[in-house]
Amino acid sequence: MMTTVIGRGHGGTRAISHTLSQSGVYMGDTLNESGDLLPPGDMYDACRCMARHVKHAGGLTWDFSALHTMPIDPEWTQLIQSYLSSVLNSDAEHRGWKIPETTLVYPWIARMFPDIKYIYWIRDPRDNIAAGHATDDLNRFHVPYDATDDERERRAISWKYQSEIYKATPRPANLIEVRFEDFVLKQEDTLSKLEDFLGIPLVRIPVRPESVGRWRTDEGRTMFPFFEDELKSYGYE
Question: Least buried of 91, 167, 185, 234, by fewest C-beta within 10 Å?
């Protein structure tokens, strides 16, 4: 079984990566404290390679349609194979990887690995944008967008873009959506569902309830009008 975690950085994805690692899932040779597979260079280049085929229609609208039908760029395939070499070459029964930038190439990852198990990790966007991440400025990965000097707005646009690319990608055969808040506040129920999905027992790692709802006391801007649809669809207030 092979598994990957998708979801924007600072969304609490380290929690599931650590859970998988401590449960015997091989997550690659070298991991950082966030549970990301290192080094990330080839993944970053793969993001830039795929972004050439994303069309920006202005504002918060992107056209991802070509990604679902065009031949996958051989350069991209080579970069992903290089990045995942330790995972792909492992003979571990259970293996996988996690790095938030996987979300930026999700359409082609889903085509390259149609039968693996996908965990889509969701966090309230108001909490998600409270801290910075490498994907805050999409220009870094050659993703076209209307740039802004407002740091929080850049993070918010990045969150929206990654939500849109996820929704635009045909759903793989094996995918589960998990809210970070449920992992923290309803850990037993959430891990039971993940155990059924993955077919393996999972350890229970320490969680911090205070990590939920931090936006309420954050001094920066955390709410943007374009969050509203996702807040409703994922059950946030």
Answer: 91
Distances in Å between the alpha carbon of 31 and those of 37, 136, 155?
A: 5, 21, 24
Contacts of 181 (CB under 8 A, 6+ apart): 123, 124, 212
How far apart are alpha carbons 35 and 97 in whole angstroms? 9
8 A C-beta contact, residue 60 and residue 66: no
For 178, the enclosing helix (H) or strand (E) is strand 175-179
Rg (CA), the chain: 17
44, amino acid identity: Y
Query: Three-state DSSP class for 208?
Result: coil
Residue 117, SS3 per DSSP: strand
Domains in the chain (CATH in brackets) are 2-233 (3.40.50.300)
Interhelix angle 74-83/41-51, rounded to 10 degrees, is 160
Give the DSSP H or E segment for 97.
strand 95-98
Q: Residue ranges of the alpha helices (H) in the chain?
A: 13-22, 41-51, 74-83, 85-88, 106-112, 125-128, 151-168, 180-185, 187-198, 228-233
Please write the tens of the pLDDT for every residue from 26-45. 999 999 999 999 999 999 99
Predicted TM-score (pTM) of this structure: 0.97
Other C-beta atoms within 10 Å of 151: how many? 14
